[in-house]
Structure prediction request, 248 residues.
Amino acid sequence: MEKIIDTHCHVQMPQYDEDRGVVIERALGAGIGMVCVGVDLPSSQAAIRLAEKYEGLYASVGLHPNDNLDERYDQSAYEVLARHPRVVAIGEIGLDYYRVTDSILKERQRERFIRQLDMSEKPIIIHCRDAHDDMLPLLAGRTNRGVIHSFTGTAEQARAYCALGWYIGLNGIATFSTEYQEMIRAIPADRLLLETDAPYLASAPHRGKRNEPLYIEGVGNFIADIRGVPPAELFRMTTENAKRLFGI
Ligand SMILES: [Zn+2]
Prediction:
């Protein structure tokens, strides 16, 4: 039984080709479960293969708004993956305007995102960068639920997502700057999820190096400190939240 869930990691990625099994077993051995998140078709299929192999590791499938611009979106291929019993969520999908200013490209992202929202009843893992003003009204009109992962928006935006029934996922980014403290405190305890986004975004003391699910403890300790709660209480609550959302 996992005592912590890393709700967003990418242990299927090439950064772990040399030692993937060791990294995964290191986390599982420490009582850390994982949601392994796809960003395109091959990484979604790879996530499922890992979830078939390791109890305590679950898969999510979807096409990220701009991680693989060469892939032609094939809804039926994702629908097949989405039905797999080890798939607990659809994602990461969403909107990323950080590198996109063209309104036609933004519209294309929105269309593809909505098609993926329509695909399944399973919870959604959303990637949203510089696009909360479009995302919030879009989600307000829908019945989907899930998590806004790697959240770096404002306290007000966090409250707005939670009021719509969504969860907020925090990772090492939250530890990079003091500007997120108000937002970190604003998230209701029953709406907060922890993640690493490994191999990216390692928090101190691992910053700049390859991240891994084991380091989720550092993220949780940091957030517990800012929220003024004992780490054990934060881990208990966020794990309960993750299990409720993903049905695991
Ligand atoms: Zn990610």
Summary: The beta strands are 4-9, 32-37, 57-61, 87-96, 124-129, 146-148, 167-170, 192-194.
